[in-house]
Specification:
This protein is α/β, with parallel strands linked by helices. Helices cover 31% and strands 26% of the residues.
């Protein structure tokens, strides 16, 4: 059975059940499916067929979710093209993966000559498909082995790689991701351009639940308002948003009593932020660990996070985890090494990238580039990315260790540490700080913070303030841009001189 057949069976079971909440309106499963069919018919009329790749550059609305199903209904594959990405980056993706058609919200004012692609305005495709749907039936259902999605990696270290997902791959990830979903689920959807975003949305729908769209995705106020207004039960957010949401919580009680699951995604969860989320937002905090290539690997429940701070859970059913050294020797409990994993229906490599596939997919394992430890009970502790590990005069550290300490201060919203050249030590540690409010942490307070958190040799030599940290459209921190941010800062403060 493919993804479309799964949803069509759900529609047939109860066509009048709610499927979507958007802009205060309810869409039934029957209405949702009718619009998927209309979009599929409109895309077929444009010549899109099995095996094609269709770029999707849409806003986070129900039409985006419908379009993903409409594309797979024809046996084609969707390619995410985030509207916030640079135009040149989107054109490279379109060219690399051979997308001849691109679905957009609004047609561009100008299309480069000989672009080799056609832009399609999504509402016009829907209208044309609905008008002519009865004239020409849709093709037969695609096989589960058909390619349905080209999933992009985070791309924090350069051009993103991709993984090709068949319907079978996609459904396998849905099953592993849908922890705690049921017919009473009301999911506040994340970015549908991200694999996790669309997987959570489909998982909620296939569980019989409802997908809720925020009118202004990404704004903290809108996020909170949507949860309260529609009784959202499941939501996800990045760690850096916890402080802002907690600041807006009522003086007594929890900000989101309706939440049964708050997934923290896209980064490590410090003990301080976990305590803040648990006591101010909801006690039902979950911490999954996974990769773009494999999907979810572990999930730490709320109880596990309290009992074993810093750990991100044990392997999900069917998932294997090993810690290995640089010679691929399996390490014992508590030893630090690279995390490698096997998951059900795991892709064999990156799409159209044999060289990188050889580096990361070896012997049936995927090598994550994350460094961590396994306890004797099989619980996973992530130390950091091997690419990000810092060594200053023999003092080794992971950026997250310092950032978690700095982020514990109420005047610091988030931080990022990196190195720059230094005439004395060869390089020095620098911290970029984003203030939580208009008040900035003072020099004396910053020094006291580093001392109280026992950073010692891991104390930044310099620090500066910035409006926001550089992030890609996936929300991931782009560490390579931090030195440029420092050069543009109004002032750089030194602890070495005053400390």
């Amino acid at each position: 059975m493919n993804l479309n057949q799964k949803f069509e069976a759900l529609v047939a079971a109860d066509p009048n059940a709610s499927a979507i909440i958007f802009e205060g309106k309810l869409l039934t499963r029957r209405t949702f499916q009718a619009q998927v069919d209309g979009l599929a018919a409109g895309l077929a009329a444009q010549g899109i067929k099995a095996g094609d790749v269709v770029g999707v550059g849409l806003a986070n609305t129900p039409l985006h979710l419908m379009s993903l199903l409409a594309i797979t209904r024809l046996g084609a594959a969707s390619l995410p093209l985030h509207p916030r990405s640079a135009p040149m980056a989107r054109r490279r993706l379109i060219s690399r993966y051979g997308a001849r058609h691109v679905l957009v919200q609004v047609l561009p004012a100008r299309v480069p000559p000989n672009a080799g692609m056609t832009f399609l305005q999504v509402d016009q495709v829907l209208a044309a498909g609905q008008a002519g749907f009865a004239d020409k039936p849709l093709p037969s259902q695609p096989d589960p082995s058909s390619l349905g999605r080209i999933s992009l990696t985070s791309g924090t270290t350069g051009e993103p790689s991709s993984v090709a997902y068949t319907h079978a791959n996609w459904l396998s990830r849905l099953e592993r991701t849908a922890v705690g979903f049921d017919p009473a689920t009301r999911l506040l959807v994340g970015s549908l351009h991200l694999t996790l975003g669309n997987i959570l949305a489909f998982a909620a729908m296939l569980a019989g639940g409802v997908v809720v769209f925020s009118p202004n995705k990404g704004a903290a106020g809108s996020f909170a308002e949507t949860i309260r207004l529609y009784g959202v039960t499941h939501a996800s957010m990045v760690p850096s948003g916890i402080k802002s949401l907690a600041a807006g919580a009522p003086p007594a009680g929890l900000a989101f009593p309706s939440l049964r699951q708050l997934r923290i995604v896209g980064g490590a969860l410090s003990e301080h932020l976990h305590a803040l989320a648990r006591t101010r937002l909801t006690p039902h905090v979950l911490l999954p660990y996974g990769t773009s290539e494999t999907g979810v690997i572990t999930v730490a429940s709320a109880q596990m996070l309290q009992d074993h701070p810093g750990y991100c859970g044990t392997a999900l059913p069917g998932v294997q985890i090993e810690i290995v050294d640089e010679q691929d020797r399996v390490l014992g409990p508590g030893e630090l090494g690279e995390i490698r994993v096997k998951v059900p229906l795991m892709p064999a490599g990156y799409h159209l990238d044999e060289a990188r596939s050889t580096q990361k997919f070896k012997g049936g394992w995927f090598y994550t580039s994350d460094l961590g430890r396994l306890s004797a009970q099989g619980m996973l502790l992530i130390e950091g990315r091997s690419d990000d590990r810092i060594n200053i005069a023999g003092i080794k550290m992971f950026p997250e260790q310092v950032e978690n300490a700095l982020d514990s201060h109420p005047l610091i919203k988030e931080s990022a540490v990196f190195t720059v050249p230094d005439p004395q030590l060869g390089k020095k540690l620098v911290a970029a700080l984003v203030s939580e409010s208009s008040a900035q942490i003072t020099h004396e307070q910053f020094l006291a913070l580093c001392q109280s958190r026992k950073l010692a040799e891991k104390t930044p030599a310099d620090y500066f303030f910035c409006e926001a940290l550089p992030r890609n459209p996936n929300g991931k921190l782009v560490r390579t841009e931090l030195p440029g941010l420092m050069n543009a800062a109004a002032a750089v403060h030194s602890l070495r001189k005053k400390g």
